[in-house]
Amino acid sequence: MTIGRAVVALAGALALAGCASSSDPIDVGLEGLTLTRVAPQIIVPGSAIQLDGESFVDAAWGQSAIHFVGTANGAPMDVALGARFVDYGRMVADLDPQWIRQHGGDFDFVGDATIEVLSAEDGKLYASAPLAVSLQFRESLIPDAALAVGTVIFVNDAIEVQGSGLLLGGGEGQTLATVSGCFQRASGGSCTPIATAQIPVTPTDPLARDRGTFPFAPSIAGIQPGTFTGTVTLENHLATDVVTRGTAQAASFDLVRPTVFRIDPGAASLGQYVFIDGGGFVGGATGNALTEIHLTGTFLRTGAPQAVPVDLLLIPDFVDGRQVRYVMSTDDSLGQALDLRHDTGMFTGTVTPITRYGADEVTGTGAPFALAIAPVRQVVYLNFTPSYVESLRFFGLRAVDAAIRQRILDVVRAAYPAVNIDFRLEPPTDFALYAEVEITGPDPNGMGLFGYDNSPGKDTDNLRLYDRLGGVNAQTQQDGFPGYGGVFVESLMGFSQHPAVGKSLDGADPLFDQVFDPFRPDRGAIITAADLTGGVMTLTSGDACPAPDRTTRIGCAVWTMGSLLGGTIAHEVGHSLGLANPGGDGYHDPGDEPNRLMDAGGDRPFPERAVLQGQGPAVFCDTEYQYLRMILPSAMPADPSPRPGC
Questions:
Q1: I want to staple 35 with a disulfide (CB 3.0 to 4.6 A). Which of 128, 236, 424, 560 is the partner?
Q2: Same structural domain for residues 81 and 163?
């Protein structure tokens, strides 16, 4: 077949743009634009084609497309598809369900793929180096897969299928396992026919069609121990409403009672998940399935002369048939039996699963356990948004983002020494209750704020562990305060005497311009990969700043930006923990003292915030530090460093 040039509207715009090299960019955000993978290899109607690489940008900074040039079944082919931004290393091109049919039906493509971006910064077209690809486009697939599982299973165990032709979900449609047969309970009786059940199959690899699993759900044969005998047939329900079926596979499974294998971690605090591993657990979206955990044994409170008996029934969250997770909470029987904010100690005893499905109940096999109750820990997730990364362009620092994040992390951790607080760069999976701070570009409030805690009200004693400093808080807006919270990198430009965005503040300082002017695109030369061949110089102080040579100047820019943002984050988190003046009025320290972290913004000059010229770092004053140690106690000895009075 002959397929001419078929491009989306975006691709037409790209074709009219001037060209620029990604190795010698005008737009620094597209330096190093690279495509490393296109997947899946077999593409069907509605596929989300994943594009992996480097230096991708979101729609605000450029329109992107994936461009294929090669042959389709031997005929020339030149097509482009619009691509949407996921993160800086991933984009997705969504294939319209009718696209393959519109291009003549099934074909094999062999050729090159490139990422093309029409920059919103300079109007130039940037393209990655071509990547050789071999792709198969199919209007439909037949699921040709066989069962690969043992005969003894728990309810909700993952039944594995191996072969080919599985759908990946999303816009493609869904592969379903159709299960039919009969079930004989272990307690006796005949093999009773069951209603045919259809269970979604989940790909083991989200981009591969050769392996997947489906749970042997309680909707198939209930939760009682016994033996299932029957067949499993895979069906593909495609986005085009086409249904294809594989060959029926004979199946026989012996279902056993639910069991607990272990509890992890061995110590947990308020708001933390306790993961219970075993088998046969039920729950989730179906409202008539539930797993309970029965704890019996003793609890020895720290400092108590003897243990007391414990008999608790807990309801965990269902993860899958092999795991449930329990949140250490003040709202259930455990939280009512203990003061999880202040009590610590050790549970020992037996943990037993109890499963319910409809009118059926099964008590499983118990296991010994030991679980320590740990002191309260505040987990804080630092969420660096795409707008933060792009706003580094104004400072010429986009290329050193990773080094700035590390400096920020060092600063916030140093601000809370020997306090049970845990700052992270990735979303926590081990805590249900954690705080989040969004680091973004411009101040959405339009007020030029460096940062703002938009959580509702003053949280004395940190009774909330889940404040979100970011987004919009309608309750805060109703109180007459700015609604949007977070930390805003563009507002720092206010320290410049000639800001690229916004306007100068009363505290604008020529030192700021000495540090950043060498890299600002409107004043100097932005930092590029060529500057970083030897890595970023890591400074241990700001004594060398401002510096005479470019390498040290880059280190100074990283030090300064990380200090400014890290100190602002530490300050805003202090607010969310109930500072300043916990239990009283006011949100800042009274008066103006050097190096006090919770002083009002106007009382904290640039050199102190930047930790330059012998000023800073700012710290919590004496009674604030004592308060932090009280609400977030640590086993570490208190920091002996001198602190200003409050």
A1: 128
A2: no
* pLDDT of 25 above 90: no
Q: Token digits for 24?
A: 């010698």
Task: Say which residue, 32 or 74, is predicted with more confidence.
Answer: 74
Give the pLDDT confidence of 516-551 residue by residue, as tens digits. 999 999 999 999 888 999 999 999 999 999 999 999
353 is written with which tokens? 């699963």
What is the DSSP code (8-state) at residue 130? P
Query: Which of 373, 402, 435 is the last residue in one of the domains?
Result: 373
In angstroms, the Cα distances linking 213 to 202, 281, 284, 502, 523 are 5, 17, 17, 54, 57
Q: Are residues 34 and 168 in the same domain?
A: no
- What sections of 500-549 are H helices per DSSP? 510-516
Report which of 150, 157, 197 is spatially closest to residue 177, judged by C-alpha positions: 197
Has residue 308 been placed in a domain? yes
Query: Is 462 in the same domain as 584?
Result: yes
**R_g of the chain, CA atoms, integer Å:** 30
Tens digit of each residue's pLDDT (9 = 90 or more) over 288-301: 999 999 999 999 99
Tokens, residue 282: 């039920």
Residue 375, beta-bridge partner list: none
As a whole number of angstroms, the distance between CA 302 and CA 114 comes to 62
The total domain count for the chain is: 4
pTM, to two decimals: 0.89
Does residue 179 sit in helix, strand or coil? Answer: strand
Q: Within this chain, do residues 355 and 486 fall inside the same structural domain, yes or no?
A: no
Contact 130/70 with Cβ under 8 angstroms? no
Let me know if residue 599 belongs to a domain. yes
Q: State the burial class of residue 584 (Cβ atoms within 10 Å of its Cβ: 0-12, 13-18, 19+).
A: exposed
Chain mean position to CA 426: 6
